[in-house]
Description:
The structure holds 2 protein chains of 2 kinds. Chain A has 14 helices and 10 strands. Chain A is of the alpha/beta class. Chain A has a 9-stranded mixed sheet. In chain A, α3 (64-77) runs parallel beside α4 and α9 crosses α14 (356-370). The mean pLDDT of chain A is 92. By secondary structure, chain B is of the alpha+beta class. Chain B is built from 4 helices and 6 strands; from the N terminus they run βββαβαβααβ. In chain B, β2 and β3 form a beta hairpin. In chain B, α2 packs across α3 and α3 (55-66) crosses α4. Chain B is globular and about 35 Å long. The N and C termini of chain B lie close together (10 Å). The chains are: A alpha/beta, B alpha+beta. The interface between A and B is large, with 35 and 37 residues.
Amino acid sequence: MGTGAQGLEADADFLQRFRREIAGRRVPFTGSIELTRRCNLRCVHCYCGDQDSIREAQGEELSRDRWMSLLDELAEAGCLDLLFSGGEPMLRRDFPALFAHAKKLGMIVTVFCNGTLVDDRVLDVFRDLPPLLVEVSLYGAAVETHERVTQSPGSYRRMREGVDRLLAAGLRVGLKTVLMTINRAEYAAMERLADSLGVSWRSDSALFPCLPNQDSGARPNVCGSCSGASSVLDYRVPEDEAAALECSRASRTDALRKAWESTSRPVTDALYTCGSGLTGFHLDPYGGLQPCLMATGYRESAVELGFAEAWRRIARIREVRAPEGYACNRCDLQPLCSGCPALFDLENGNPAVRSEYICSLAQQRFARVSNGQQTAVLSR
Amino acid sequence: MAVSYKQRADLVARNIAGETIVVPIRGKLVDLQKIFALNGSAEHLWKQLESACTMEQLCSGLAEEFDVDRSQAETDVREFVEALLEAGLVEGN
């Protein structure tokens, strides 16, 4: 425009570009909200942990009014990209109202759920104010496998019905799974199921331990049928097999290769190099604000302090320097690695002690994307 | 009678880090992947479009606010309104 304006800008990359631009200004642009950690399922691997203990903390969850005002504060602070998660967010009767409020504040909202509680109240609000995506957890292509993970008879049928309802309402749906020893034989079948439904599908190989939250006492759900698994991490699939499954479809291998080739690897002495506490945040059911889901050690109360002040205080995560000898922030494999200091802390009790499993998985991915033709420099 | 234009009701304009971002909250799914950023004088025009405005009113406002000649203001307003109409952010009646 001759008046000095660029006018209207809109393209698929806008969000990404804008996020980069505001990173230096520490705007809480991307967040996740655990409305509740309660769930009607009892998944063996769940990082929320023991449902019996969590239910006892229900009275401490934020009220609808408190969530409403916190959502107002998030919008005011600059949040645009918001995830409603749990636990199972739809367990809360006020989920439709809270979701609608976030949408009407102009946030772009994604919902993670287990698919079993998609009722007419939820569908009515989704039809009126569509979420960007509803991602439903799928833990097996077979009923028995899915329910061995969820430990909840009937959960597979209810999940499928929920997915069908979402699709019939014209919504964008995705399926996601966590790769485990329990479901590894059905990896391809789960993907085929997603294909047959015409929905996106993704898997995560990086199981991590139960979070050290007070409500669960950091205890995982007791598994009644998984003898031999003494820890959630026992469900991890061996790294070579996990990488082989991830690369069993050319499009995924190509995506990994593209990430490897195009992602910058800034050498830094900072310990936390992701967007947590920079543009990203996580709110727990009791109003605790953290840089991310896993970084529990930086929790501040957004209820007592207000969101803006809590956000200011959790900036301290960005000040943490990596100790001498810490190699992950100099590693060439960063674009292929799903590890981070918060996960290392959960796994090893020290954020600067890497997960050997995650490191090995990244190396296996590298072997697959490079066809053994290149040598990675693990640290510089 | 001149056509007047107005922001659609199913949009939310946000100010994030000094940028005006327009987010569609209803409508076709494909629209939800698109957000729009308004820069400079586009913000001024967008504000005016909170209530129904004709091209003439928009041009006068722009020429006055930015001290530009009338023909430049007309060109800018026409291009901008056409872009808004194409993106489905305003409606005319």
